[in-house]
Amino acid sequence: MFEALSSKLNGVFDRLRRRGALSEADVTEALREVRVALLEADVALPVVRDLVNKVRERAVGQEVIRSVSPAQQVIKIVNDALVEALGGGEGDDGKRGIDLNAPSPVPILMVGLQGSGKTTTSGKIALRLRTKDRKKVLLASLDVHRPAAQLQLQTLAQQAEVTSLPIVAGQSPMQIAMRAMDVARRELYDVVVLDTAGRLAIDDALMEEVAQVKLATNPHETLLVVDAMTGQDAVNTAKAFQDKVGVTGIVMTRIDGDARGGAALSMRAVTGAPIKLLGAGEKLDALEDFHPDRIASRILGMGDIVSLVEKAAATIDQDEAEKLAARMQKGQFTLDDYASQLKQIGKMGNLSGILGMLPGVAKVKAQLNDANLDTAILKRQAAIIGSMTPRERRAPDILKASRKKRIAAGSGTSVQEVNKLLKQFDDMSAMMKRMNKLGQKGLMRGGLAALLPGAGNKRPF
């Protein structure tokens, strides 16, 4: 998300940095380009106008002109304006995700149009509440219109290891909702997620059904699920639901498929409702909190190290990582260890998404895309290592032509891919040896340059 906008804004700021001292004309010209970039990213016109005006008021004045680094000062002003537009800044209470501060069972009403990912998101929220918040969750499908909708939610409940309300044929959405709340009270559930029916478009019947269920269950959270891929249609949908039903928060799905991101920038300003969660991918654990300040940093190419560290901490096995580090320090790095590393990285999700959290990576995004960077590559490499015998993994030097052909056939790859993997492993092993040879003091003196190929022939001091 935001790739196109990030690329354009970074181009504008690069030109500002080259200027040194900035005049009012320089700032005005830059803001004209910022406005065009925002409009091309599908940000709503009133939001663009408001954001650019805020930046102009703060940027055109002595604060920037006399600054030690005027371009950096402008970037900070744009960053602050983006955070405000995304729902952060002043008045932001810092609370993220779902609010469960209510007596149990806490009803959460899921609303949205058909195809927005509402049912899948209900399953993701259930998994999140069970694992992160240690809550006892009941999932209930109120969708009696779409064939197999209730069975779909039942399957998702099994995957999330939570309970789904038993299906009773012929019941109305209102009856299902009341039965869900009754079961939750009697069986001491902490949270009830009520997945309502959607429509292909907003109509009176949909709004009336949602309004009746909301009135009867009095949900603590009413979460609207919108598809980020629909751009301004997502904003219009959110505004209609907010006006007619009232929502407490928005969940944006398929953000991994939307390169523009204008809907996210427009959502808070147009609807007044905060974006609470982001869905990136079909996996049940692909749900994250929405942080305005972190998103603004990503847009401006400053990365999002905090989210990257959180993602790593949540997915990487600490004990396994420490054992691997100890083996690497002793120079005992094998293909089994390499496969373990690939598995750990794969758990963190899409590689492009991970790299997008690193500062400055936006500038080399095109090269990364050309390299066909994907977790599928990791899986192929893991398959190659899995096709080797234990002896071959411990001593890859014995891998000659006939063995490589057998491994390629067994893993469904080519001999060239096997050779490429072995070359990467050799490069990593060589770096580990240089690290061990230099020691901590040598690394501190020589820096990263000491690890580069050929550095082993040079004295690190």
Mind sketching the topology for me?
Blueprint lengths: L2 H17 L4 H17 L4 H15 L2 H4 L4 H16 L20 E7 L5 H14 L5 E5 L7 H12 L2 E2 L8 H14 L4 E5 L8 H14 L3 E7 L4 H13 L4 E5 L8 H10 L3 E5 L7 E3 L2 H8 L5 H11 L2 H12 L5 H13 L3 H5 L9 H6 L4 H12 L3 H5 L6 H11 L3 H32 L15
Parallel strand pairs: 1-4, 1-5, 2-3, 2-4, 5-6, 6-7
Antiparallel strand pairs: 7-8
Helix pairs in contact: 1-2, 1-5, 2-3, 3-5, 5-12, 6-7, 8-9, 10-11, 15-18, 18-20, 20-21
What does this structure look like?
The protein is an alpha/beta fold. It folds into three domains: 83 residues, Four Helix Bundle (Hemerythrin (Met), subunit A) (Up-down Bundle); 196 residues, P-loop containing nucleotide triphosphate hydrolases (Rossmann fold), CATH 3.40.50.300; 149 residues, Signal recognition particle, SRP54 subunit, M-domain (434 Repressor (Amino-terminal Domain), Orthogonal Bundle), CATH 1.10.260.30. The protein contains 21 helices and eight strands. The chain has an eight-stranded mixed sheet, sandwiched between helices.
Helix-and-strand structural type: alpha/beta
Largest sheet geometry: 8 strands, mixed
Task: Output the CATH class name of the largest domain.
Answer: Alpha Beta
In N-to-C order, the SSE pattern is HHHHHEHEHEHEHEHEHEEHHHHHHHHHH
The geometry reads as flat
Strand order of the largest sheet: 3-2-4-1-5-6-7-8
Mean pLDDT: 80
Radius of gyration of CA atoms, rounded to a whole number = 26 Å
* Tally of strands: 8
Give the N-to-C terminal Cα separation.
Answer: 45 Å
What are the low-pLDDT stretches, counting only 5+ consecutive residues below 50?
Answer: 442-461
Q: What is the number of helical segments per DSSP (H or I, 4+ residues)?
A: 21
CATH superfamily of the largest domain: P-loop containing nucleotide triphosphate hydrolases
